[in-house]
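Hi team, as promised in this morning's meeting, here are the two structures we talked about. I've kept the exact order from the run log so nobody has to guess. The first one is mostly here for context; it's the second one we should focus on when we meet again. Sequence first, then the predicted structure tokens.
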Amino acid sequence: MNSNRNWEQLKENDFDVYKAIIGEEKRQARGIELIPSENYTWP
């Protein structure tokens, strides 16, 4: 399966979803966002 072809098909068929996925990939490539854990002990 050729992933480049799949991206092109997605781009042609649903451009909004394609843009959202590409934007998310770029956001994740810039850095990691850590979410503080709520499972900690209170002193």
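And here is the second protein, the one for discussion:
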Amino acid sequence: MRPTFVCFALALVVSAFAGPIPLAKRDGPVKENSYIIKFKSDAPADSLDTLKNGLTQDGSAVSYSYDAVFKGAAAQLFGSDLSYVQQLESVEYVVEDTAVSVSYTQETADGSSSVEARSDVMSSSMFDKRAGDGTGVTVYVIDTGIYLEHICFEGRAKWGKTFGGYSDADGNGHGTHTAALIVGKDHGRATGAEIVAIKVLGDDGTGAQSDVIAGVDYTYQQFIALGHKRAIATISLGGPGASQPPLNDALRAAIAAGLHFVVAGGDGSVPTDIVSPANVAEANTIGAVDSNNQKANFSNYGGFIDVWAPGVDIDSAWIGNPTATQVMSGTSMAASYVASILAVALESGEKSPEELSQSLKDNASEVVTFSQDDAAAIRSSTRLLAQPF
């Protein structure tokens, strides 16, 4: 019997390993010794335990277990542990954990600017209330957090969860500014919707892709736990590189399950096809225009832009005190404008992400213009400007 047992044990060891999976290198800065691992769809249920139990180097440990958007993990891996993980049969890919950040232009804290600030862009008083105010809809803002005490939220903002070891507060302001443009009184249109802070970025507006995926995973879990209650998630951040497979895969899985995503197109004045997660085709990717409906000089462009929206010199809520405001510019502001429109549209009944995205485009106006210097944008971009519907 002993030879039979040895052969069986050897077969188990061999089946757990395969040829090494190549390490996907990423452009730009990365979180040192941090990696994102995705398991194959048919991987055994104990794949994460197998991975954990095989780590032998000091400092190696699993940071996150992803359970909803895909089966995987983020881990700190040192020495031979990286090659160990690359050889596991259950692993689909291993990628470096890239840095991500918000991108925007900040003006003065008193709301002044070199040009007149647009405080009327999404003012609730501008819209016909018969169309609704987003009551019954939940918006998840995956960002720097939200200053819950700001008066514009009227008690409709709450803290969801923080990832990355940061404090449970918005010390940056970007998350608060964008949240108010969606649901804030005197700033957004969806003044009946609830908004939830999912903090994945630090007070400097930067973070790691692994933290963002954890935030998306958590948001997806909440969406499922609440019975697919009408919900929208916004994500106004990104990193360099044509594709960030884990983050893009996470968004696609959540969208496929019915969670609507609005994504900022990015502020590098480059094609969206080289920016992640702006290049997730299933999401609503938004570019920014100025007050003349011309493409903002900073806005990314290209085939992944679904619609454009106001994003230059936008006045909204800020951190520090309950009445603070700030003027900012960016595709983050434009994305928030669209999220507010979609939240109101969802009040009247659930639509699939594909259906709602089509309605957004069907109701948009083909009025966006481009400067003479934007030849590439002219050739590759839609001219649709988002409109309430």
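Starting points for discussion:
The chain has two domains: 16-98, 102-385.
The domain at 16-98 is CATH 3.30.70.80 (Alpha-Beta Plaits).
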